[in-house]
Fold this sequence. Notes:
About 15% of the residues lie in helices and about 45% in strands. The chain has about 350 residues and is of the alpha+beta class.
Amino acid sequence: MRSMDGKRFMPRIFSPKNPHYHPCFIRENRTERRNPCTHTVHGARTMARHNEVTLYGQVSSEPLLLRESSQDPNSRICRVLSSFTVIRGIRDFGAKDQRMRLDEVVVMSGNEKIMDFMKEWHLGDIVSLRGTLITNDYNKSCTCAECGHTQLYKGYSAYVYPIYVRLVAQGYTPEQGLAELRRNAEISNRITVIGKACSKPAFHRHEKSGTPISSYIIDIERKYRVKEDLDSNRHDFPAIKSYGGIAENDYLAIEEGGLVFVDGQLQVRNYTRTFICENCGAEIQKLDNVTEIVPYSTEYLTGCHSMADVMALREQIKEQQEFQATQEMFAGGGYGADGESGEDS
């Protein structure tokens, strides 16, 4: 294989199955793999822990080395962070706009062997990886433009924690990288998770297109313990945002505590949050970002309504809407008993 400057190089693979490709070999990424968690609900045995991300992307930022002490440049490196440009596939996920979209996904590891591997990445490199989606709550800040007061608010972050990485190519330009991502769109951005809904989904329609949208949070018990993370962090809580018919089904089928299997893609978007200044009462506009899972499909497991129930509910809603439309037509003076218009001629 050749890099874009014509030099030959061998793809470098870091995986427990391929120790001979790279000296930085560890077993299961030095995380302690727990026994599969299963439980029985109404006689059904269900796997409760699953969280797998597959990315094929282009390195979009030079690796950032995070040290134990920000004041000491020689202190030990505790984490390495980078970002990937990935492309969302062309499969239908319910939204009206089906164009391919690019997302910037954060990748971070505190494992020494993977950090050594990540430190060698450069802008333009094409990398394939498999990992898990990790979420953390932490305090963010916003500053009032009127009085200069700074206040904290609860924030949310999500990143991919790699357990397998492979350097595919080096030195691609953004244009060459985009072409490569398009050729591999089906594997560029993929995630499958199993988790319990923390609440019933919130439902609304897009103000312009009218597309149905459902939003909810799921609780995923970690299959792997991230050693460099707090031992108390054994769960992840990613946000789910579904569109179209999937969103309608999610809203009708999912109840609090219901177990779902989601097959989808990662979406990273910016949005504006509004706060009230604690000091002067002025409005504060803060640009924030969120990483969400957008389902291609959702399977409703234990604690959810079945698809048969969902279809029955859909029929009831349709009948109610038709009845309401008929009532409104007659209430507005639609047609009289003789078939003539109720309006004056």
